[in-house]
């Protein structure tokens, strides 16, 4: 890794041993790898003057007495002080410094492990802590996913009725033990009562339909209202999918509370309510957020991760893999999703731990068996018929549809979310949720394909028809298979129920497309995977039925003649639904490898990888033709998070001097000198500016760079010195050098801040192409980079400067995209 190479070349930051062993400032600067011109005699004197007398005496006068003590300057920062090296909310971590801190900790443990049995035990605990934390994360993720699945199924059925024998049973579980069910009406049993039967005492008729309609809307609005109120009052961060924010956090951004215990608790509860309300959303994306909350909470049990933000993000990468594993029952797909879609830094060690976390989470969910089918997902299917070469044409057409849908959805949803942010409508999130939930419930109830749970809809669309299926979609299939339920003649045409189902599916497709645009982004937990898959599955099933009927009526066409015999079963509509679901999800998220593996794990069939790959790649190409951003990157940009997407290419020919600050019209760069400031002057610079850090130079005249000091570290160091040291006053001199010169006897005690100084800030020359600068920021996760000319400081480039510049190059308003 780049940071390891930089470390061995002397770039490690805040290394107390290297600072202490250096004999002069010039040696420290050279050791840090900073290339400067040291031919000026004046600057050499400035740098080496304090090192000429390493044993300089510091005389102090106490209470007006003449007695003086010959003591060395007290450096209270020889030991790291609490708070130094930490980060404020909505700031970016320093990846290189965090990795160096971890190596220092690792060396310290290795050097002590042979001293005693206790130290050896501590080293073993440290080595195994990574596996322990991902194990706990996997256990918690699997348990919470099982709880969410069971509760969501029960509450979804609560909208239609209740089980009198056991209220905690959903509709399917209620009829399991009944001896009065028939095959044709397997979902009807005396134990399950609809609301019309309970309230009116009748199961059929207009009055019964209206009562069930009313109760459906009542429960949908109740669940949606409770969900949005819980989110608004207790955990505002629990809304949305969570994946855009997790991508940003994994890139190094700090959002305190986003992965906290309150967010976890409220997200778990409100996710059940939101799914049960019938809104066009899914629970798969929020499950990644839930798993990352578990990983974040458990990481605080282990100092190795709680005290190092970079190491903590390795746990979060593994947690996101566990989240997808329990969402789709796809452990390998979860690991690839973490690698391809959300992770910013993914070393090999994290790959192994992500795999293990996904394994543990899937094992726990399988043990709970929330769907009662011994599977990890509700819509697990297996196909027993092969696909034929001519079917690649409709598969690719489904990929084109998925790409067009993805591009349309991203533009429409972002436009609506931007309007929500910029108008008064966004100030009433509760009203918006109630309004969308009411429209969804009113329109969804009359259509059986929109009334049922979206996961159950996908299951029905994926399922290969056979004699055991009683769905309207399978009436023609039962005839063609010679099912005794209809007729023994396989040449009969499809029943009218199939055409009725096709019309209902077309209406459901339009409904899902419109409502998903307005639902994603509401102030409730809302995932996008399931709605996108449902839209693709509906389109795919329609195409599959059309292809099957075409093959049935025109089996003598050259396309079907070679593969389809009269009455043969050569087209599988469920496979088309699966390919369409993958294409639409790929068009929205622009995932490729991980998506194919996830869908492959759903079906358990190797032979369908080629159709999936063809459809997913086609959807990505078509979507990229309208814009390279997926929905998560678009929401990151909409919210103004400081995220540099590694997939986005920088093709402009600008230089570092074109981007750095200060510009010609800006005030001079705020800098600190290494030995000319007092505490009062230093505090004045901090109070008068809002910058997060300051370059430290030799003198105002030379502008020779010494290092970089963070605002937060300076403030904490000054407060800590005043608490622990006597004699620190406003006129105390502040030193960033290794040694302090001799001071007059009546001078107050000086304050030495050498140890909080970053002695190896990354620097580029003013002629460095911005293409290289952007690449450095992406690969090393930098917060800022200093710009020099012939070794003298010119300016600074931060991550936000780069984002502003990229927006400006794309003809966007630079300030409109920044995080507020």
From TrEMBL:
Residues 660-726, 757-815 form the CBS domain. Pfam families: CBS, Voltage_CLC. The chain crosses the membrane at residues 128-148, 216-238, 258-279, 286-303, 315-339, 388-410, 430-449, 501-522, 534-555, 575-600. GO terms for cellular component: early endosome membrane; Golgi apparatus; late endosome membrane; lysosomal membrane; plasma membrane; synaptic vesicle. It is a multi-pass membrane protein. SMART domains: CBS. Its main location: membrane. CDD domains: CBS_pair_voltage-gated_CLC_euk_bac, ClC_3_like. Keywords: Antiport, ATP-binding, CBS domain, Cell membrane, Chloride, Endosome, Glycoprotein, Ion transport, Lysosome, Membrane, Nucleotide-binding, Repeat, Transmembrane, Transmembrane helix, Transport. It is found in: Cell membrane; Early endosome membrane; Late endosome membrane; Lysosome membrane. GO terms for molecular function: ATP binding; chloride:proton antiporter activity; voltage-gated chloride channel activity. Gene3D superfamilies: 3.90.1280.20, Clc chloride channel (1.10.3080.10). Strongly outwardly rectifying, electrogenic H(+)/Cl(-)exchanger which mediates the exchange of chloride ions against protons. The CLC channel family contains both chloride channels and proton-coupled anion transporters that exchange chloride or another anion for protons. The presence of conserved gating glutamate residues is typical for family members that function as antiporters. Belongs to the chloride channel (TC 2.A.49) family. ClC-3/CLCN3 subfamily. PANTHER family: CHLORIDE CHANNEL PROTEIN, H(+)_CL(-) EXCHANGE TRANSPORTER 3. This is Chloride channel protein. It comes from Poecilia latipinna. The lineage of its organism: Eukaryota, Metazoa, Chordata, Craniata, Vertebrata.
């Amino acid at each position: 890794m780049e940071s390891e190479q930089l470390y061995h070349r002397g770039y490690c930051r805040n290394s107390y041993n290297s600072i202490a062993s250096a004999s002069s400032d010039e040696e420290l600067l050279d050791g840090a790898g900073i290339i400067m011109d040291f031919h000026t005699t004046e600057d050499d004197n400035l740098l080496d003057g304090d090192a000429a007398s390493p044993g300089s005496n510091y005389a102090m006068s106490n209470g007006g007495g003449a007695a003086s003590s010959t003591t060395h300057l007290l450096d209270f920062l020889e030991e790291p002080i609490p708070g130094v090296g930490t980060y404020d909310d909505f700031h970016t971590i320093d990846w290189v410094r965090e990795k160096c801190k971890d190596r220092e900790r690792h060396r310290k443990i290795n050097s002590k492990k042979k001293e005693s049995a206790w130290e050896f035990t501590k080293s073993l605990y440290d080595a195994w802590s990574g596996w322990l934390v991902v194990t706990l994360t996997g256990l918690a993720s699997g348990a919470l996913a099982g709880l969410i699945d069971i509760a969501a199924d029960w509450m979804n059925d609560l909208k239609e009725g209740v089980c009198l024998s056991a209220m905690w049973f959903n509709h399917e579980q209620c009829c399991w033990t009944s001896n009065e069910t028939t095959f044709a009406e397997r979902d009807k049993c005396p134990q399950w009562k609809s609301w019309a039967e309970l309230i009116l005492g009748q199961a059929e008729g207009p009055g019964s339909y209206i009562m069930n309609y009313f109760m459906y809307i009542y429960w949908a609005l109740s669940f949606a209202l409770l969900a949005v109120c819980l989110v608004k009052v207790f955990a505002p961060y629990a809304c949305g999918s969570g994946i855009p924010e997790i991508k940003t956090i994994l890139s190094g951004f700090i959002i305190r509370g986003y992965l906290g215990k309150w967010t976890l608790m409220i997200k778990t509860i409100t996710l059940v309510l939101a799914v049960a309300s019938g809104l066009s959303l899914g629970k798969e994306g929020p499950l990644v957020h839930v798993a990352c909350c578990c990983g974040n909470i458990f990481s605080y049990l282990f100092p190795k991760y709680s005290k190092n933000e970079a190491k903590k993000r390795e746990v979060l990468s593994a947690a996101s893999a566990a989240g997808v594993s329990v969402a789709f029952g796809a452990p390998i797909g979860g690991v690839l999703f973490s690698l391809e879609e959300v992770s910013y830094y993914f070393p090999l060690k994290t790959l192994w731990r992500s795999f293990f976390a996904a394994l543990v989470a899937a094992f726990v969910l399988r043990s709970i068996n929330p769907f009662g089918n011994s599977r990890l997902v509700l819509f697990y299917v297996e196909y027993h018929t092969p696909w034929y070469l001519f079917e690649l044409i409709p598969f690719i057409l489904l990929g084109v549809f998925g790409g067009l849908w993805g591009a349309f959805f991203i533009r429409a949803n972002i436009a609506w979310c931007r309007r929500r942010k910029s108008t008064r409508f966004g100030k009433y999130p509760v009203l918006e949720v109630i309004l969308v939930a009411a429209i969804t419930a009113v329109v969804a109830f009359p259509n059986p394909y929109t009334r049922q749970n979206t996961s159950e809809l996908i299951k029905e669309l994926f399922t290969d028809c056979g004699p055991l299926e009683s769905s309207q979609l399978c009436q023609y299939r039962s005839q063609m298979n010679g099912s005794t339920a209809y007729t023994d003649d396989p040449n009969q045409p499809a029943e009218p129920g199939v055409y009725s189902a096709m019309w209902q599916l077309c209406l459901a497709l339009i409904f899902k497309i419109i409502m998903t645009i307005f639902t994603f982004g509401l102030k409730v937990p809302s995932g996008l995977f399931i709605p996108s898959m449902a839209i693709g599955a509906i389109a795919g099933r329609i195409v599959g039925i059309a292809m099957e009927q075409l093959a049935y009526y025109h089996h003598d066409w050259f396309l079907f003649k070679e593969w389809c015999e009269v009455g043969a079963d050569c087209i599988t509509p469920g496979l088309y639904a699966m390919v369409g679901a993958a294409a639409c999800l790929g068009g929205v998220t622009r995932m490729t490898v991980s998506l194919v593996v996830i869908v492959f794990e759903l079906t358990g069939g190797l032979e369908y990888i080629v159709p999936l790959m063809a459809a997913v790649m086609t959807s990505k190409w078509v979507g990229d033709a309208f814009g390279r951003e997926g929905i998560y990157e678009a929401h990151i940009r909409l919210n103004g998070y400081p995220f540099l997407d590694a997939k986005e290419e920088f093709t402009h020919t600008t230089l570092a001097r074109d981007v750095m600050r200060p510009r010609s019209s800006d005030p001079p760069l705020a800098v600190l000198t290494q030995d000319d400031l007092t505490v009062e002057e230093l505090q004045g610079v901090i109070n008068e500016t809002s910058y997060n850090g300051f370059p430290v130079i030799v003198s105002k005249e030379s502008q020779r760079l010494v290092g970089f000091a963070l605002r937060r570290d300076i403030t904490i160091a000054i407060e800590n010195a005043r608490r622990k040291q006597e004699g620190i006053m406003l006129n105390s001199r502040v030193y960033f050098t290794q040694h302090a010169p001799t001071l007059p006897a009546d001078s107050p005690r000086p304050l030495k801040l050498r140890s909080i100084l970053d002695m190896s800030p990354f620097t580029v020359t003013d002629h460095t192409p911005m293409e290289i600068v952007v690449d450095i920021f992406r690969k090393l996760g930098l917060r800022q980079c200093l710009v020099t000319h012939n070794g003298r400081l010119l300016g600074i480039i931060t991550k936000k400067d780069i984002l502003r510049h990229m927006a400006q190059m794309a003809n966007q308003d630079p300030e409109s995209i920044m995080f507020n």
